[in-house]
Amino acid sequence: MTGHATLLVNPASAKGGSARVAGEAVRLLGAAGWRTTVISGEDAAQSLAAARAQVAEGTDVLAAVGGDGTVHLGTQAVAGTGVPLGVVPAGTGNDFARMLGIPRTDPAAATRLLMDGRRRTVDLARCGERWFATVLTSGFDALVSHRVNTLNWPRGKARYQLAIALEGLRLRPFPFRILLDGKSVEQEGILVAVGNTAYYGSGLKICPDAAVDDGLLEVTLLRAAGRRQLIGLLPLLKRGTHLGHPLVETYRAREVEIHAPEVFAYADGEFAGDLPLRITCAPGAATVLVPHEG
């Protein structure tokens, strides 16, 4: 089987690692008889407009070549269209690929999924006019995401660890009010995370029971804590074994609304807006190409 694959390349890395990975993907696809179109605009808005045009014209697959930010762009283009989203990881986090078992360190294997991967229907979450695929974060973890985006060094997971350390020096609680399918929860907390999937922050399993196809969002609230308590929690967050900890509360809902003064949120590592924000689960909103089971 042959077809047409559109490669959406991280516009912030158009001449870097993502571009090199995209070049190899084009070679592999071409060798198999596939036609390819590469998109990498001057900025995210230009890239998204081009991706939407390709989807409207009938591309067989839209592949995000980059990290979770590029996946975020791709979901805006394919949500509700039936056009499958492929992922060829070339970023630092790659948490969406991690959740779905897409190879994160083997671009050739990930590229082959564009041609013969299994189609899996997954949920997306919607916040205003934007879709997101992984986790929306507010409070401390949103501050960490903002800090990560301002750092040029170091690379990979070390950047997240440095951002956590820097923001930990300014740790403070926020007066959250959360509406869960209309039911109100009020609690001072360090962070609130709303997960369509389990992972964020380059492998932190913040919403460990989140399933990408159950029609629900998982909400994790970390209650007010000091720096020493937060440091002690980090290994548990990494493994996803923090459920049941006295500082952690979890909920599940189809619709979540978060309120807190002077607090903002990030989703898929991208700025999502100032609170209050309403997040809704959109069951089966996207199709993703994933490895065959077994």
From TrEMBL:
Transmembrane segments: none annotated. Residues 1-130 form the DAGKc domain. Keywords: ATP-binding, Kinase, Lipid biosynthesis, Lipid metabolism, Magnesium, Metal-binding, Nucleotide-binding, Phospholipid biosynthesis, Phospholipid metabolism, Transferase. It comes from the Bacteria. It holds the Pfam family DAGK_cat. One of its GO terms (molecular function) is kinase activity. Belongs to the diacylglycerol/lipid kinase family. Its cofactor is Mg(2+). It comes from Streptomyces physcomitrii. This is YegS/Rv2252/BmrU family lipid kinase.
